[in-house]
Amino acid sequence: MNEQLLQLMSRFKTIIHDDLSIEMKKYAEDHHVPIIQEQGLELMLQLLRIKNPSAILEIGTAIGYSSLMMARHLPHTKIVSIERDPVRYQEAVSYHERASIGNQVVLIEADALEIENNQLPILQYDVIFIDAAKAQYQKFFEKYEPLLKEDGMIISDNLIFHGHIFDNQQKQSRNLKQLVRKINRYNEWLAQHEGYDTLLLPIGDGVAISMKKNREILKEHC
Predict the structure, then answer these.
(1) Distance between CA 189 and CA 181 in Å, rounded?
(2) Torsion angle of alpha carbons 147, 149, 151, 153, nearest 10°?
(3) Spatial separation of the C-alpha atoms in residues 141 and 128, rounded to whole Å
(4) Contact 48/126 with Cβ under 8 angstroms?
(5) How far is CA 123 from the centre of its chain?
(6) Distance between CA 26 and CA 20 in Å, rounded?
(7) pLDDT tens across 174-210, in order?
């Protein structure tokens, strides 16, 4: 099924790369910086084109690759991206300055769990993209979902975690086992969330798309 889905997606592949984005991918590979995989990026961009968001909140900037690619492919969308690592934040600033997308993307150096929601330059988002510390995904979701519009969507990346969630955990280190358990708990929590319909796709490193349910319909069933 995964192979058939990838073949279908390849027919609609529209990612535009240039020397800068290729350089960023090479830098991430050489310095072991986790960025969204190409297949996951393609899926996300296709969803965003359909959604046509006016504002996106990204939790986890890293070196600014995904925010740059979203800005490039969605020229009318504003993006706010939060990164707590000062080195990666500065790398993202440098890359974005070279890309001339400063009018589209606001980079914030902060711990996403410590900054107050009302400190963000935009307080309502069509899409929230979570791609930061995996052990904190549920906390990120719960903290920022109040900023999501009624018809909003939350995208969570890296939920298959390089296939580790399928591994025999006897082969995994103690820390890795703990992280895998937390990712699995988050996946289960998403699947059971009463306020969202979630689809987990085995694309890239595992992408979950959570769509907010209509509150009026929810009230009718309560």
Answers:
(1) 12
(2) -30
(3) 9
(4) no
(5) 18
(6) 10
(7) 677 787 888 889 999 999 999 999 999 888 778 999 9
